[in-house]
Amino acid sequence: ASSSSSSHAGGRSGAAAGSPAHEFSVFWVPRRSIAVEKVLEDEGVYGSLAQGEFSLDLVALDDDVLSLELDRAFRECTLEGDTSSLFYAASALLKLQQMYGLIPRLQGMGPAAKAVMEMAVRMRREAPLPAAAAVACRIHRAVLLDREVDPATPMVTQITFEGLIDEVTGIKHGSAPYTPSRREAGASDAARGRPGSTLLNSSDPFYKEFRDLPYYITSQRLQQYARDARKEYAELGSKDLSELKSFVKGLPKLLLLDRLSDLAVPVAEVVKEQVMLL
Length: 278
Fold this sequence. Notes:
The protein is α/β, with parallel strands linked by helices. It has helices at 34-42, 73-80, 84-100, 111-126, 131-135, 161-168, 205-210, 215-234, 241-249, 251-272, and strands spanning 6-9, 12-13, 22-29, 49-53, 59-62, 65-67, 105-109, 141-145, 175-178, 196-199.
């Protein structure tokens, strides 16, 4: 597959005597390209495959975040001369308008942004929006920024809670590496301490509260919440039945708080060692 396409194969091959025939399929994500079809032709299997496309474009990472997850787009456009990602961005912009109505104002800065706007306008002419979408207008303006205009910003150290998690452990596709602590309730001995990953989005009320705060404020609040939780746990023996029920209902939130505390540990170690230039 090309740098902008991937495939999933089922397939059809010549069956040996007495063995059942197999059918093979290739689905290109997000779309097929001439380059990958040429490879299949050179290998002599183009006519033996059933082909299709899966247009994976906008991925909802959070309530207010949509991403194409094209992490190589800047490199491909500036160094490799592959502008496929600009086509995908224009297609996604057209899809947004099909869903939420015509965007009357498209603005952009930089040559790539200008190219995306021109492609989006051309696509809209070639495939007019449905009548309802053409009239509706839920997005009044879209601003496109070409990273080439400002390459310095991604190099600046982030100091928010979410930013430092990204700096230290990395956030990819809306999730971060995560190793549960051995104190985590409900986990088997085998599961405790096993590395994995965890989603980070606004469905977690604590993460929603902390994500955009400076790290030192988040650290203070986490410590305060932990002290309050330990105090409430220590007073369980003096609580009546209704208070115990209320405590049990709040256990899922305590587990979420535990998870964030575990995510903060690697960040705290790096900050304390003063490895990062804040």
